[in-house]
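User: Can you predict the 3D structure for this chain?
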Amino acid sequence: MTSKAADLFGGATAAGQDQAAPAKSGDVPVDSAPAAKRRNSSGARASGQQAQNDATSVGEAGYNAATIEVLEGLEPVRRRPGMYIGGTDEKALHHLFAEVIDNAMDEAVAGHASFIDVELDTDGFLTVTDNGRGIPVDPHPKFPDKSALEVILTTLHAGGKFDSKVYETSGGLHGVGVSVVNALAERLEVEVARGQVLYRQCFERGHAVTPLETLGKVHNRRGTKVRFKPDAQIFGAHGATFSPARLYRMARSKAYLFGGVEIRWHCAPELAGDNVAPEAVFKFPDGLKDYLAAEIAGKELVADQIFAGKIKKHGGHGSLEWAIAWLGGVEDGFSSSYCNTIPTPEGGTHESGMRMALLRGLRDHAERVNQSKRMAQVNADDVMTSCAAMLSVFIREPEFQGQTKDKLATLEASRIVENAIRDAFDHWLAASPNQAARLLDWVVDRAEERLRRRQEKEVARKTATRKLRLPGKLADCTNAGAAGSELFIVEGDSAGGSAKQGRDRGYQAILPLRGKILNVASAGRDKLAANQQLGDIVQALGCGTGAQYRDEELRYDKVIIMTDADVDGAHIASLLITFFYRQMPKLIDKGHLYLAVPPLYKLTHGAKTVYAHDDAHKEELIKSEFKANAKVEVSRFKGLGEMMPAQLKETTMHPQKRTLLRVAVHADDREATGDAIDRLMGNKPEARFSFIQDRAAFATDLDLDI
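Assistant: Here is the predicted structure, written as structure tokens:
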């Protein structure tokens, strides 16, 4: 070891043993900073740990038994109203009325009440009165110092609907409805008439402010009267006001749900409006059938009759009522369902049972009339898409999702509804074969429309992710935009060849077709989807069909049908026009569809040649274009394929010399046009025969190519 190394180690050892010892002369000086740094680091860690421990102690000290709140009575409702009524908006506000009138309806459904009064005052108070048994007022066994009335109104989960002893079926389940109303009301007053004695008690924000008062004897009065005003502290100063129109509709709907009850509506005259009468009486013995008839009044129906029925069971459990109609035209359907008179806007198991009953009933009917293949592609959505349905079911101890009861979850409801409606639906279809046939055709059409939309979406998705593919037979133009571009749909490959040679490549495209295309008016969805010629047309145009049609994506400004000037050519043109009318009606409405008018005759004398479109035109040209004694050579074209490209260009394709007929459907003639196409191009030969018979007297020899 060198002396320098020894001195270094010796100095280090001395420093490690005694930091105060002075360094000897000649020793290497030793820096004491690293040691101090280590001491400071250790001290910092110790200080940080201590601070963390102190913070933890403070945090733990701030979370102890004293911070645990125990909410009693109705305080949970006021602190978290959304948990009980779904929020504090307008819908939640009117849910208070629903809770009160539902209790009155339970009395009516149980057979103890015959009428319900609903009254809205200008001061914001709403009153609901029934002539039922009245809320019990005797002392409660568990709370001898309180009446049952006060217990019900001030205690959550207190009520008489937890079993089936008092109510066989009821809308109330949890014993929180009217107590929630009390908690969220600025003031609530209850009057009860029982045993010819009238009782009264008042509450404010969930607390009793008066004892139960006995007001004396009353005659010819029984039941419960609840008068309350929503609390502005909960719903806001402007949000605590009831909508008369909404209350009016809710009260009327309750009367439809149970034909045995009469609901009397009253509101201050200044609150009445166009759709709200100051006074009204709602009583509908036919129940949901009357309700649906009022909702769909004036609308076109697929079947003339409403499919309605009612089944009553002893005790109420399993009773149900329904009314169903299918809307024609472009009307959307709707479903309104109820369980124990409680609206279920999100549906549930009872609606699932109804959907399955209608679907299976239609499938059985299709099998009976040998049309089961048509129903193979139909699902429940196709049956319900334009269906206006109302359903009300009564079930013992139903299960809902959430306190607001928007969706029924009772599995038994699906079986009850499906079995009941299925049998009645089978009889309804069998009793009226004509309307059953119309309904079957309508539902199958909805299924075909759904499948077509799905295919169009799939095509749209594919074209968005890969380069545009065009039909192989399409001879496209070089013009990049649709403006000024023309697509000629030509009959036959030979005519297509002549058209390709005679066209202007800059703006004229040619798509030849082989033979007659599919008649879309009588073909099913499967044949339409599998047809290659129609697929080529759709692909070439690029604008989609039906609801997916997009005019801005059309690749050509003019779509020109160019067929032979004979009966076969006219037939092919008719088939093509039918296709566009059914699958792309907006293409016609936008003025994009044209018919080319090729010549039928060629007239030649010496060096002069003219062309005639028909016999009358031929005779006119012979007289006007040639001398009287001229020997005119007349030749008739058998088809476009016989024409030379130059002739086809000159007579039919050149913009300055051709004749085009624009296809249009006037608004006044739209219905008659649709009827004519259905009769002439549909799959019912008797309709075509009738059309011909009706118009045979107007036909002349010139109209017939025989």
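The CA atoms of residues 123 and 229 lie 9 Å apart. The domain at 299-451 is CATH 3.30.230.10 (Ribosomal Protein S5; domain 2).
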